[in-house]
Write a structure and sequence with these properties.
heterodimer; A: alpha+beta; Single alpha-helices involved in coiled-coils or other helix-helix interfaces; 4-stranded mixed β-sheet; 8 helices; 10 strands; elongated; B: 206 residues; mainly alpha; Fumarate Reductase Cytochrome B subunit; two-stranded antiparallel sheet; 10 helices; 71% helix
Chain lengths: 263, 206
């Protein structure tokens, strides 16, 4: 099956929030009551009941000028997904054939390891159900050949859905056009540290992704890798070795009886 | 001969009760912890009521264990101090393991191996409790702490479980009579004289 992806061209985003509304509609989630901090941004961050958030990043330049970077933010559906690496409950977080990283909430136990392991800080725990939620790329829509709700709602074609390879090409072409038009640092955000992402951005200033609320060089944290890799095998070997070691000690040396002990 | 003559009190009830509360909470926390440690052992969660259930109660098992270890600390910390004889004993512990006790200093109420286990578990409990609190409430804790805790918690748990594997072996199969000392609280005088001669001399002096 072909890997699908979402392309977000931040240079054509007008901050209308149609994607946010469409996401809530399709996921059948009522608009939550939350923190309003006096900016254009709907909430300070994504929530367990609000998966698609446009970040309104205000960037002041040294010469006093201002850039207003709008960037839709949600699960990045990493090719090398830290959440899947960290999850202890088999099948709770899984990858669909089309590359989407999805949750099976019947299997999620709410431990929160995925929250710690995610380089983008996306998954959120619902305190009532004690399960973790995030964007699932509308897997119920894509399964029947529909595009995700956010894509369908976008009025400027800032959002595109399709085969990942095609979108990488479109993004690359678009970044080249921007550079030819004088946006010298325009580029594609598809970070290699997590093997690439199935949500790809075109950024006007690709040298500073943090200005868009995106991490500069995201990777699955090394502690997560050590924990789920060598530490696991060392630990298992130590425990099995301990059990076998005591057993063989017993059959080799036997118990230490007390002198003159009869009972 | 009456039984009281042939018995020496090894551990009072106030020592046995915390020990067994610690044992029960340890086994619960260890088995549920192993279920969360690797997907290969996740089936253990079914034994204890399912994944969501153990995620909720594993931390409480740890809280009970930590509190009870506090009681054990109060009971035993003074007796567990290592003296010069103990350090000598530890250097020759490999000889103790093969029943060649020539030249080993005589142990008191606890031998140096038991003392080491005590301190390993005390330190491990502090580390497990601190890192466990971080993992308990991931959304309240800074990410750096959480990333440290996912390494510290299982590493220390493996050391702790390794110590307990040896402890259970020593307390049951390897040293006959020791188990009764912790369950019913008494041992035979010959047992005390053989395994803990310095202690036996102390309690029979008066």
């Amino acid at each position: 099956m072909v890997t699908v992806a979402k392309l977000i061209d931040t240079t054509t985003c007008i901050g209308c929030k149609a994607c946010e509304a469409a996401c809530q509609e399709w996921q059948d989630q009522p608009f939550p009551v939350g923190t309003y901090d006096g900016t254009y941004q709907t909430f300070p961050d994504v929530r367990h009941d609000f998966w698609n958030l446009i970040k309104f990043n205000e960037i002041e330049h040294a010469d006093g000028g201002l850039s207003w970077h709008m960037a839709k933010f949600q699960c990045m559906h990493c090719v090398d997904a830290g959440c899947i690496t960290a999850c202890p409950a088999p099948g709770a977080i899984f990858r669909r054939d089309n590359g989407t990283v999805d949750f099976d909430h019947d299997k999620c136990i709410g431990c929160g390891y995925c929250i710690t392991a995610c380089p983008f800080d996306v998954p959120r725990l619902n305190p009532i159900t004690q399960k973790v939620y995030k964007c699932n790329l509308c897997s119920d829509r894509t399964a029947v050949g529909l595009e995700p709700a956010c894509i369908k709602a976008c009025p400027t074609n800032c959002l595109t859905f399709g085969a990942r390879d095609d979108l990488v090409q479109i993004a690359t072409d678009r970044a080249r056009t921007l550079r030819e038009d004088g946006k010298a640092s325009a580029g594609v955000y598809n970070p290699a540290g997590v093997g690439g992402t199935n949500v790809i951005y075109v950024l006007e200033d690709a040298a500073h992704p943090e200005d868009y609320g995106l991490p500069n060089d995201p990777t699955v944290p090394w502690t997560v890798r050590v924990w789920q890799g060598p530490l696991k095998w060392l630990g298992n070997a130590a425990l099995v070795g301990g059990i076998l070691g005591t057993f063989f000690h017993y059959i080799r040396f036997g118990p230490r009886h007390a002198d003159e002990e009869s009972s | 001969m009456t039984s009281s003559v042939n018995r020496v009190e090894r551990f009072a009830f106030s020592e046995r009760a915390p020990h067994w509360m610690a044992a029960l909470s340890f086994v619960y926390a260890a088995l549920t912890g192993l279920a969360l440690w690797t997907p290969h052992l996740f089936w253990l969660s079914d034994v204890f009521g399912g994944g969501s259930t153990i995620r909720r109660w594993h931390p409480w098992g740890g809280v009970v264990f930590a509190v009870v270890l506090g009681l054990m600390f109060r009971n035993w910390a003074r007796e567990m101090k290592l003296d010069a004889d103990d350090r000598q004993w530890l250097r020759k512990a490999h000889k103790y393991a093969v029943h060649d006790e020539e030249g080993l200093p005589e142990p008191g109420r606890f031998n140096a191996g038991q003392k080491m286990l005590f301190w390993v578990q005390m330190i491990a409990t502090l580390l497990l409790f601190a890192s466990g609190a971080v993992l308990w409430f991931p959304e309240l804790m800074p990410r750096t702490l959480r990333l440290a805790a996912i390494l510290i918690h299982p590493s220390v748990a493996v050391v702790s479980m390794g110590g307990i594997i040896v402890h259970i072996y020593m307390g049951t199969a390897a040293v006959p009579g020791a188990f009764r000392g912790m369950i019913q609280g008494w041992v035979r005088p010959a047992w005390a004289r053989s395994h803990h001669p310095k202690w036996y001399r102390d309690i029979t002096k008066s």
